[in-house]
Design brief:
The complex is a heterodimer. Chain A is an all-beta fold. Chain A has no helices and eleven strands. In chain A, the strands form two sheets. In chain A, strands 2, 4, 5, 6, 9, 10 and 11 form a seven-stranded mixed sheet that branches. In chain A, strands 1-3-8-7 form a four-stranded antiparallel sheet, with no helix packed on it. In chain B, a hairpin with a 6-residue loop joins β3 and β4. In chain B, the strands form two sheets. In chain B, strands 1, 3, 4, 8, 9 and 10 form a six-stranded mixed sheet that branches. A four-stranded antiparallel sheet of chain B has the order 2-7-6-5, with no helix packed on it. The termini of chain B are far apart. The radius of gyration of chain B is 15 Å and the shape is globular. The chains are: A mainly beta, B mainly beta. At the A-B interface, β5 and β10 of A face β3, β4 and β9 of B.
């Protein structure tokens, strides 16, 4: 299985809602990533988990809260988001570190009303 | 008027022609470079990579060239097909000058349109 899966595919939420994005991989990778991608822009790194520990937080606002319950799963908890947070949220994984090839999921298209 | 950054640079080629997509990178400490293809509604898909100890690497129908002197990367696609139509991103992997941490940084992207 060489796939990274993400759910849901699309999400619409209000500014007072709490929701979560989920990411899963079964390649035995120990590094997992969240990226944010606005329309017609490149992906921007948000968080990196290495061996289930948060190793990089690219100054992301606290309304985004990542969680890595085990080596196969990565969540992104969302609370009190703003309309400008609407974007494609991409999850990726790699064997051990940022030095390795990253495999991306299809993304969750998030719209904040 | 238009806002800067709303439009991706676009390369339009005829089916069967060769395509060359260029990328300039900024971090002299970057030592690993990757080209990704992103089709509409999908995540980036790895195409080919190159380490800084090489200046050329070939795959199936694709070649990546690296010029470290001028910090330039290019992707050549031979015999371009309609299925190659997508946005192509170069990405550099190296220790950030400010952060000292290794991370992947994407370039701004080029849209390739293949005319049948």
């Amino acid at each position: 299985d060489t796939e990274v899966t993400q759910t849901p595919k699309h999400l619409v939420m209000g500014m007072t809602n709490k929701k979560s994005l989920k990411c899963e991989q079964h390649m035995g990778h120990r590094a997992m990533y969240w990226y944010k991608q606005k329309a017609k822009k490149p992906p921007e790194l948000m968080f990196v988990y290495s061996y289930e520990k948060l190793s990089i937080n690219e100054s992301v606002p606290s309304r985004f809260s990542p969680e890595c319950p085990n080596s196969s799963l990565l969540n992104l908890h969302l609370h009190a988001l703003q309309p400008e947070d609407s974007a494609l949220y991409l999850c990726a994984s790699s064997q051990e570190s940022s030095w390795d090839e990253q495999f991306f999921g299809p993304g969750t298209r998030l719209t904040v009303l | 008027g238009e806002s800067v950054g709303l439009h991706l640079p676009t390369l339009s080629v005829q089916e069967g022609d060769n395509s060359i997509i260029n990328c300039a990178y900024s971090n002299s400490a970057s030592d690993y470079f990757i080209w990704y293809k992103q089709e509409s509604g999908k995540g980036p898909q790895f195409i080919i990579d190159i380490r800084s100890n090489m200046d050329k690497r070939q795959g199936q129908r694709v070649t990546v060239l690296l010029n470290k002197t001028v910090k330039h990367l290019s992707l050549q696609i031979a015999a371009t097909q309609p299925g190659d139509s997508a946005v192509y991103f170069c990405a550099e992997n190296g220790e950030g000058v400010d952060t000292g941490r290794r991370a992947l940084t994407f370039g701004s992207g080029t849209r390739l349109q293949v005319q049948p």
